[in-house]
Specification:
single chain; 159 residues; alpha+beta; Cytidine Deaminase, domain 2; seven-stranded mixed sheet; 20% helix; globular
């Protein structure tokens, strides 16, 4: 997956959205990857483009920010960005489940959870090989952490 995404020419600051569909054997299949090449503003068009003609109902966000060195750096801006994305995605039947931040998209860049501010490792975060012939993400990385702060789009959810 990382090789495919790297060919997309991810800028130093971007929001990468992964649309997930079927889940099996602890992995969620990635149906579509969408790159928004700005992090100061979320254009609702990106939510429509990500979800158009797809079956996925769950998304994962990766904020790529060359200026962030670790948890807490620019986190207020990242939370506002992912909240805006979550609200726009919800209008298209997609729920933003988890959000991560990485300093860059290259190997060995640190990755942390925006929801909990915990380090998750280094890029590549996601398994290079899965038991399925599709791009997939471990369910443990898709599921919103129990100890995360609520997003604006989650208000009123019963789960």
């Amino acid at each position: 997956m990382w090789e495919k995404a790297a060919k997309m020419s991810i800028p130093d600051q971007a929001l990468v959205l992964l649309l997930m569909k079927d889940s099996r054997d602890g992995f969620g299949e990635i149906e579509r990857i969408w790159v928004a090449d700005e992090i100061d503003y979320f254009d609702p068009f990106h939510a429509k483009a990500l979800s158009y003609g797809t079956n996925g109902t769950r998304a994962v966000a990766l904020v790529v920010d060359i200026e962030a060195d670790g948890p807490g750096d620019n986190s207020q801006e990242h939370v506002l960005l992912t909240d805006a994305a979550a609200c726009a995605l919800r209008e298209h039947g997609v729920k933003l489940e988890a959000a991560y931040v990485a300093r860059g998209f290259g190997p060995k860049e640190p990755v942390w959870s925006l929801d909990t501010e915990e380090f998750k490792g280094k890029v590549p975060l996601f398994p290079a090989a899965t038991p399925h012939p599709v791009y997939a993400l471990a369910e443990s990385l898709i599921t919103k952490p129990a100890n995360s702060l609520p997003r604006l789009a989650d208000i009123g959810d019963e789960d």
